[in-house]
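Something for you to look into today, if you have time. Could you write out one complete protein record for me, on any chain you like? The space below this message is yours for that.
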Amino acid sequence: MPIIDIKNLPELFQKIIKRNLSSDAWDWLQKKSDLIKTEERSMQLNLSFSMLPRQTGRDIIELTNDETAEFNLSGMELNDWTIDKLCRVWLLMQIPEGDKENYLRKINGLFATAEMNEQVALYAALPFYCYPEEWIARCEEGIRSNIGTVLEAIMYHNPYPAKFLSTPSWNQLVLKAFFTDKDVSKIYRLYERANPALSETLLDYVQERLAAHRTVAPEIYQLTQQMNPQI
C-alpha cells in the first residue's frame, strides 16, 4: 500500500482530474486507464505516459480548499501541480499491485526511459507507490540528479524521503538542497530529522561559504543551532 493515508485516494485524484480536464481528454484518459489495468505488458502504459500532455495540456490544476487541506495533512501540497503531472500519477495508480514483480518492472521501465517531465511525475509519485521500501534506491538516485525540477519533485512537500531514507541519504538530500539553492522550507519534516552528522556537515559547508565570501542561508544556522544550542 502507498504511504499516503488518504481515504479513497484514486477516487479523489479522479475527481480533481475530471474537474480540470475537458470531457474529451477525460474520455481518452479513462480508456487508457482501463487498458493499463488489464494489460500484462507495459506497452500501453509507456505510450500513454509519453503521449499524455498532448491530450491534457500543462495547465496548473485548481483544487478546492478541502482538497488542499486533505493533502496538506499528509505532507503533500498539490497546488502547483500541472494537470499532466497529476494525470500521470493517477495513471500509475491504475497499475495492478497484486503481482509485485510485474508492478516493479512496469514502473522501473518508465524510470529507465523517462524524459525530464516524466521523471518529475515519477518522483512526485513516490508517496503513492505500492511496496514503498522498493523505491528507496530510486529516491537516492534522484537526489544525485542535476535537474532542478526533478530535485524539487523529491524535496518539496514529498513525505517519502523523510519516512524512508537512511540518515546518510537524508543528509545528502538536505545538503544538496542548500547547495542548489532550493527552498528548504518546503522539505517535509526538515527539522524533525535534524541529526548530529547533518549539523557537522552543514557547519563545514558554512565555513566553505564564508571562506569564499559567499552568503549562507539562514535555515542552515537554524538547523545547526537545533543540534548545537551553544552556537
Q: What stands out?
A: DSSP finds 13 helices and no strands in the chain.
